[in-house]
Amino acid sequence: MTLNERLRALETMARALWRHPLKLPWRNTALTLRERFREDRLGITASALTFTTTISLVPLFTVALAIFSAFPMFERLQATLQRWLVQSLVPPDIAKQVFSYLNQFASKAGQMGWAGALVLLVTALALILTIDRKLNDIWRVRQSRPFTQRVLVYWAVLTLGPLLLAGSLTATSYAVTVSRGVVSGLPGGVRFLLEAVQFALLTGGIAALYRYVPNTRVRWSHAWLGALFVGAGLELAKKVLAWYLAQVPTYSVVYGTFATVPILLVWFYVAWVIVLLGAVVAAYLPSLLSGIARRGDTPGWSFQLALEVLAQLRAVRDATPRGLSLEALAQALRVDALQLEEPVAAMVKLDWLGRLDEDGERYVLLVDPTVTPLAPLMERLLLAHQPNTARFWFESHWARLTVAQALDTSPSWPANAQGAEVGPSVASG
What we know:
The chain has 19 helices and two strands.
């Protein structure tokens, strides 16, 4: 890709980022966030991530220390960068204590043997895999990346992340070196610039998390908008928590010097809730922008969507270009694209649908609806054919239906099924 093409791509993404918030239906967005928070149990997930983060923080901090010790060129920036990370991610009222505790714990962690190091590694992996699993759940991804690939991705983040941050802050290290007392005397414009750099680095990291962790295609503009939501939410939450601690010093009165721990736990929970909600914004942005009106609140919803997808693909079977993208199907059916993941994946496994990857991902119909029985799809999405359900299958004659008969607006029942329906009425007469 040439420089001009890269600049045009950046310009297109910038315009999309500016256009998306203006077009976003804020009321529907709030309803979607509330619905997903409840149905996806994001509160429970945030609690689990809070616990895992608490026990994984020291291992991750130890890895960062080891990386800086391996690269002497960044050694003088180590304390500054670590302090910057803590102050960026933790409210200022407890940042100093947290930074001190992390340094103490990390220095002692280096004295452990292989068994202790293995425990630290397992706790760090637990946090990584929990984040990976939940983000894939939010994007409705059925199959995660292979374990080795996930470990390599996160290991690259753990190793390259601190180095990239250090390199980006090298140019401004003269201004962020607190030990020289420079920050307190900076003019307002420079302080604003440093805060903007801090915000950009934070949102960039979150956007990369949304872009690369889910095992599906996520547009950069969607990932960036979700990351901007997280960045703004974290800044607002830090200010609200700082105001609360200043006005209502309950934790300090009750816990004394131990107050940092419960405050840190509360902050971890709030931060993870914001990060998960940002993932919901990024995942559901296409449906929010297109004004989705239908929601899956009826029994057999996935089966109903599968029939509607089949009808859409049958209608464009001979069109050029062939097939429809998932976004086009979602827009035509007025549903969220994530709701189509399950029925489309089921029909792909049945070899009813095929996916074309050239010129954009599209799905095409591979079977003839007039001769294809509907039973395999019903077994996957509606009612499994088991011994205790055999009577339903036999009496309803579902096994004799074809896909075309199910798609017809006026049902055309098999002849035997019609006779079975008429028989009881005649006998009853």
